[in-house]
Amino acid sequence: xxxxxxxxxxxxxxxxxxxxxxxxxxxxxxxxxxxxxxxxxxxxxxxxxxxxxxxxxxxxxxxxxxxxxxxxxxxxxxxxxxxxxxxxxxxxxxxxxxxxxxxxxxxxxxxxxxxxxxxxxxxxxxxxxxxxxxxxxxxxxxxxxxxxxxxxxxxxxxxxxxxxxxxxxxxxxxxxxxxxxxxxxxxxxxxxxxxxxxxxxxxxxxxxxxxxxxxxxxxxxxxxxxxxxxxxxxxxxxxxxxxxxxxxxxxxxxxxxxxxxxxxxxxxxxxxxxxxxxxxxxxxxxxxxxxxxxxxxxxxxxxxxxxxxxxxxxxxxxxxxxxxxxxxxxxxxxxxxxxxxxxxxxxxxxxxxxxxxxxxxxxxxxxxxxxxxxxxxxxxxxxxxxxxxxxxxxxxxxxxxxxxxxxxxxxxxxxxxxxxxxxxxxxxxxxxxxxxxxxxxxxxxxxxxxxxxxxxxxxxxxxxxxxxxxxxxxxxxxxxxxxxxxxxxxxxxxxxxxxxxxxxxxxxxxxxxxxxxxxxxxxxxxxxxxxxxxxxxxxxxxxxxxxxxxxxxxxxxxxxxxxxxxxxxxxxxxxxxxxxxxxxxxxxxxxxxxxxxxxxxxxxxxxxxxxxxxxxxxxxxxxxxxxxxxxxxxxxxxxxxxxxxxxxxxxxxxxxxxxxxxxxxxxxxxxxxxxxxxxxxxxxxxxxx
Length: 689
Fold this sequence. Notes:
Blueprint: H1 2-5, H2 10-28, H3 37-54, H4 58-63, H5 65-93, H6 103-114, H7 118-128, H8 132-144, H9 146-161, H10 167-198, H11 209-226, H12 231-249, H13 252-283, H14 290-315, H15 325-333, H16 339-346, H17 356-385, H18 397-417, H19 422-441, H20 451-470, H21 504-518, H22 539-563, H23 573-582, E1 598-601, E2 612-616, H24 629-634, E3 637-640, H25 660-669
Parallel strand pairs: 1-3
Antiparallel strand pairs: 1-2
Helix pairs in contact: 2-13, 3-12, 3-13, 5-6, 5-8, 5-9, 5-14, 6-9, 6-16, 7-8, 9-10, 10-11, 10-12, 11-12, 11-13, 14-15, 14-17, 16-17, 20-21
């Protein structure tokens, strides 16, 4: 029923199915099965966490790790103590039915109910397709808060059996948080390295390659749980560490098997968890107390909202991309509770916690409210607030190149600034990984393969398989790379499409495409070195030409500065042209103006700026005699330009005054300047020189 599934999340429908099945079993007179904590923690939870850890978007996770840790650690501690303290106050004021519940029991209840559940978050957030930032913040918080939940749960459970809790016990409890979280990560890293090392020697037995991934991951989880460490963090660490090395060693079929088996296994576990949650609600013993249950629900929402607002205000002081009010609302609203809280509550011992049934009833109420009410309304709210959705785009070589380029650029900027930030340590880790770790954990030549070449190899294989499956290979010429034609197939395919049988020619064409493109990736290019570059034969000529041009420009600039005379304010060039054009005879040269600079003006076109020719301009005082006062007053004298006879050159024809200084001036003014640029295809140095 598409109309129902588009409104109600799958997790809600599964809980309803569980409720119906539980009611049916109880109606028949049988006792419904209850979700036991051992079954949940040992068999149902690990596949979901391994699937999340193995396919974790590592780049977004590491870039936002600080924000995720603050939400997971500080936020969960705040929720647990705020909720536990307020519930203790409610119990003291709530009447005779609640007076016997002490502070430790309420703090334990707060630690159980405060943690965001990864199973519920995955079930709801994958359906609404929220953007990567919000998804990784809420989901990363739900994964990493497991260490806080485990520590607080075991801590308060142990304290409940003590007669007196001392300061040393509290300090040891605080230190146990680091032991549990870092110990879980260490166990996961060890098993991840062992799995990667084992996959190096499985080239002759490809069938059992996926088995090692599941086996070592499960052993990491069990080893961590054995010592009361964080099993979830061990699984995440194992999946993140082993994936790049295992995928470089195993075959493509093994990779497909791991991918689909993990997805199937996690989906089955998720389905069983929500169905068993519904069945256990019908089958379990409940003790309903209105005051306790409603207070729990109300204070859970208040604690979540306050925690997100305060922590985001602090985080935004250090983030470049700030979390907007819309983002804060989705983070606060996406704090869903699930089966982990129910199983932890089910683990409580009646001997120390006689109010276990009331705790379980309140926990189930909170789970149902968050999954049903918040899970069903978060999709309309995302659309209403116009929150950015996730864009389904295929990664390309272009994107990979630019991403690596920006990483190198930011690393260089951090080094120049002397700031050892995120990119600096990431670059150090990548260098260490390339120099030492890859050689030990990856077999053959793949250990020396650059990351970009490995990504290209992966893209080529994927594109080739997609083209063969879609039957569109015949449209492509053999010389074209399959990566550059991602949109060869139409987006809307017909409903019933029969795959055509490939002929021998098409099979040969496919092999040719794969052979020509895939073998290129194994060719090693020589590294760039400025000492081994071939010298340019025209480099010396270019340098001489540039020096010559520079000298000419400097000379022109000096001459312009030397010859420039400020114009009189009343006799601007425009007014002078207008007067000469109207009455040329009124501006005849004066008697004592033979040694003055002369500007000849062509009255034929007084409007053009090229009409002013510097025919003879001699500065005063060049002849060796001091200038007279009359000459100072007279300034520049304008003479009408005589029309030149045919065949004569305006520049090179000698005038009346052929003194050496005048000839030198004419030579400077008649310099044609640098030669024109050589056209395309012409040599830099003309032949014969």
